[in-house]
């Protein structure tokens, strides 16, 4: 008796089966993923995109250090955290609101995609006036910021947030100045600085953690900068791990330093 193989029939059935369709994320859905950034040229200013699960997402435009959202860079993957919006697509990508971007420290030669300008995509962009960037030094005040009268009383807790595996940068002047102002206002006698190692639950369930020594590095760096700026009081440094906070909802908050001031 001749035995017939069922394999050709199985292959034919698979070939004729409808392709598996992955539903696109809905507005309001949180996303957290690591992917290569993509830069697309436009007639006004380059825009940055990134692909995840077959969908292209708009991240931000190319800008300088004074921008609220700093662009990623080619040659490195980027950690993208944001919420899917229902806004019209920009540069061909789904727009994320409340987006936070962190350039991953390791080099990745695959992250080198540059797309040419496409007349379908335009960016409304008003460039800043000629001259130096609007970036400031670490403790320089923001001349354009409206400051309400400080009303600080009692114990003060200040949270300072960081990019992935990074320490203090040009983004932190307001946080550091706030510590100094509050310490003076309450007549602080002592304080503590706790650095936390961030952890992130990505959308695919993967747990992403920062390097083991980053918590101590952040605590030491913040304490040193505050002391150098004139905060003349004893500061005790501690470390913590944010793995227990990693639930996929605003996990960027685990990348932090907590400064506590005691009157």
Task: Please describe what this structure looks like.
The protein has two domains: 30-115, Beta Barrel (OB fold (Dihydrolipoamide Acetyltransferase, E2P)), CATH 2.40.50; 156-262, 2-Layer Sandwich (60s Ribosomal Protein L30, Chain: A). With 263 residues, the chain is an alpha+beta fold. The chain has three helices and 13 strands. The N and C termini lie far apart (94 Å). 15% of the residues lie in helices and 31% in strands. A hairpin with a 2-residue loop joins strand 3 (47-52) and strand 4 (55-61). The strands form three sheets. A seven-stranded mixed β-sheet has the order 1-5-6-4-3-2-7, with no helix packed on it. Strands 8-13-9-12 form a four-stranded mixed β-sheet, covered by helices on one side. The longest helix has 15 residues, at 214-228. It has helices at 7-16, 173-186, 214-228, and strands at 30-35, 37-40, 47-52, 55-61, 76-84, 94-107, 114-115, 156-161, 190-197, 199-201, 207-209, 235-241, 256-262. Residues 1-21 and 127-140 have low confidence and may be disordered.
Say what the CATH topology of the largest domain is: 60s Ribosomal Protein L30, Chain: A
| Overall geometry | elongated
Rg of Cα set: 24 Å
Q: Report strand %.
A: 25-35%
Distance between the termini: 94 Å
Helical/strand content category? alpha+beta
Number of domains: 2
Summarize model confidence as the mean pLDDT.
83
Poorly predicted ranges: 1-21, 127-140
How many distinct beta strands?
Answer: 13
H and E order? HEEEEEEEEHEEEHEE
CATH superfamily of the largest domain: OmpA-like domain
Portion of residues within helices: 10-25%
Largest sheet: 7 strands, mixed
CATH domain class of the largest domain: Alpha Beta
Tally of alpha and pi helices: 3
CATH architecture of the largest domain: 2-Layer Sandwich
**Widest beta sheet: strand line-up:** 1-5-6-4-3-2-7
């Amino acid at each position: 008796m001749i035995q017939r193989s069922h394999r050709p029939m199985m292959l034919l059935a698979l070939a004729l089966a409808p392709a598996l369709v992955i539903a696109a994320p809905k507005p309001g859905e949180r996303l957290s993923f690591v992917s290569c950034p993509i830069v697309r040229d436009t007639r006004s200013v380059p825009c940055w995109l990134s692909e995840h699960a077959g969908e292209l997402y708009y991240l931000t435009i190319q800008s300088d250090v004074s921008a609220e959202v700093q662009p990623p860079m080619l040659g490195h993957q980027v950690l993208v955290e944001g919420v899917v919006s229902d806004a019209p697509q920009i540069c061909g990508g789904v727009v994320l609101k409340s987006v936070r971007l962190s350039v991953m420290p390791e080099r990745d030669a695959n992250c080198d995609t540059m797309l040419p300008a496409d007349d379908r995509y335009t960016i409304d962009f008003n460039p800043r006036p000629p001259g130096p960037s609007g970036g400031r030094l670490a403790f320089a005040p923001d001349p354009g910021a409206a400051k309400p009268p400080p009303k600080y009383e009692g114990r003060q807790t200040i949270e300072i947030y960081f990019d992935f595996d990074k320490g203090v940068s040009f983004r932190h002047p307001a946080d550091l100045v706030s510590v100094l102002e509050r310490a003076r206002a309450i007549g602080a006698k002592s304080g503590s600085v706790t650095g936390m190692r961030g952890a992130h639950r990505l959308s695919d369930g993967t747990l992403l953690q920062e390097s083991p020594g980053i918590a101590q590095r952040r605590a030491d760096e913040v304490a040193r900068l505050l002391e150098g700026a004139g905060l003349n009081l004893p500061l005790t440094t501690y470390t913590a791990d944010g793995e227990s906070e990693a639930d996929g909802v605003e996990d960027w908050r685990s990348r932090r330093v907590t400064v506590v001031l005691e009157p």
